[in-house]
Design goal:
415 residues, alpha+beta, 5-stranded mixed sheet, two-stranded antiparallel sheet, 11 helices
Length: 415
């Protein structure tokens, strides 16, 4: 018998559900089973006294309660809940009407909020609101029938009603105690699940942090090796420049050396900083400008580079193309913008306009007659065009009071 009762209480429980969810199903099953068992004496009494109408109401109620257990077993949890609530709220006014208000069936209304909170989750706000509204409506109907009787027989004299009141009070107190105990068990399960969940989250967080740290170390090592390889290439090109008498070849080697140096500075910055996905763009531009200025310095000319770049960390996929573009334009200015002049200024500006970055490199040199016939070598210009496309940007060239190259490209970052 005990094994059978446990089996009924556990109907609908599953390993796929949490302990707290299974606990709510258990509470509903306990209430339904308890109600079926406690109604048996009423059912027998009604049939023995030939009160067939009331006996049939009790019998129908027991059948519906059994059906809710069946629905839970088939995992139709929501339907089972609503049928149970609807049944309780419909039979209480009926029993109060048939037995009389003083029989104490209205006492079970004090149990219904506990039942609703026991079987529904607190997140199911609509279900809770609907259920409590039904309680109020049903309770109102019950109290409207406070002194009404359908059957005018000796079964419902004041003495019998008083006895029924005591019985219903005792049953109600028993059910409240039983369900309160189950609710406490549910909350213990819930607290245990929350603690287990928090512990699992902490473990996952530590594992993720460890994994990120390991990947950052590996990525930094990659940047370090790339930086070293680029530095070797840069050094080899500089050595080759010193061993060639051909000025054209030397110039080509110098340009390529600076292009390599531009990328090397980026990887050096990535390796030096804790952040491995972006670089300090202001520091990078200042270092690159200094490298070019040193490489193209002339004893008879005073050409300075002024950088107007905010403190910003730029992503790697934006920093490399920007660095190469700046390198090409500044080198071009040193070579062609100040022919016949002893001094000059090259300005590098980087700012955000709306949701786009705007990079401008300009000089106050001699400029060029038109943008159709630039002094910039064809490879350098092609490289700038290609890098601008890589940034999904647009290039504008002007020649007013010198030359100016402006590259505008989209960005999701903020300065």
């Amino acid at each position: 018998m005990v094994a059978f009762i446990k089996k009924v209480i556990n109907l609908g429980q599953s390993t796929d559900l949490t302990k707290s969810a299974n606990s709510k199903i258990s509470v509903q099953n306990i209430f339904s089973l308890s109600s079926i068992i406690l109604a048996i004496p009423f059912l027998i009494s009604c049939y023995l006294t030939n009160e067939w109408l009331i006996g049939n109401v009790f019998f129908t109620t027991q059948l519906i309660l059994t059906y809710t257990l069946f629905l839970n077993g088939k995992k139709y949890y929501t339907l089972s809940k609503f049928i149970l609530i609807a049944l309780v709220l419909s039979v209480l006014p009926i029993f109060s009407y048939l037995f009389g208000f003083n029989s104490g069936f209205y006492l079970y209304y004090f149990l219904t909020p506990l039942l609703i909170l026991s079987i529904f989750k607190f997140s199911e706000k609509k279900e809770l609101i609907i259920s409590f509204l039904l309680v109020l409506i049903s309770c109102g109907v019950c109290f409207l029938n406070k002194s009404e009787y359908v059957l005018n027989t000796s079964v419902f004299i004041d003495f019998i009603q008083h006895q029924l009141y005591i019985i219903n009070f005792a049953i109600g107190l028993f059910l409240v105690t039983l369900m309160s105990f189950e609710i406490i068990k549910y909350h213990f399960h819930l607290i245990h699940e929350l603690k287990a969940s928090n512990k699992a989250l902490d473990l996952n967080k530590k594992e993720i942090e460890k994994s990120i740290k390991e990947k950052d170390i590996l990525l930094a090592e990659v940047y370090h090796r790339v930086k070293n390889n680029l530095a070797i290439m840069y050094s080899l090109l500089n050595l080759q420049i010193g061993h060639s008498d051909n000025e054209l070849i030397n110039e080509l080697l110098r340009k390529n050396a600076l292009r390599i140096r531009s990328m090397s500075l980026i990887h050096n910055s990535l390796y030096s900083e804790k952040e491995v996905s972006s670089i300090d763009f202001k520091q990078f531009i200042e270092s690159l400008s200094s490298e070019i200025e040193t490489s193209y310095s002339h004893p008879n000319k005073s050409i300075s580079i002024i950088c107007d770049v905010p403190n910003i960390h730029l992503a790697l996929d934006l920093a490399i193309p920007c660095g190469l573009i700046i390198n090409e334009i500044i080198v071009n200015s040193f070579k062609h913008a100040f022919n016949g002049k002893n001094s000059g200024t090259i300005n590098v500006s980087f700012k955000m306009v709306s949701s786009s970055y705007v990079l401008t490199v300009s000089d106050d040199g001699i400029g060029f007659p038109n943008t159709e016939n630039l002094e910039l070598d064809s490879f350098g210009l092609s490289l700038i065009d290609t890098l601008t496309e890589q940034l999904d940007g647009e290039l504008r060239i002007s020649s007013q009071k010198g030359s100016s190259f402006t590259v505008k490209f989209p960005s999701t970052e903020k300065l």
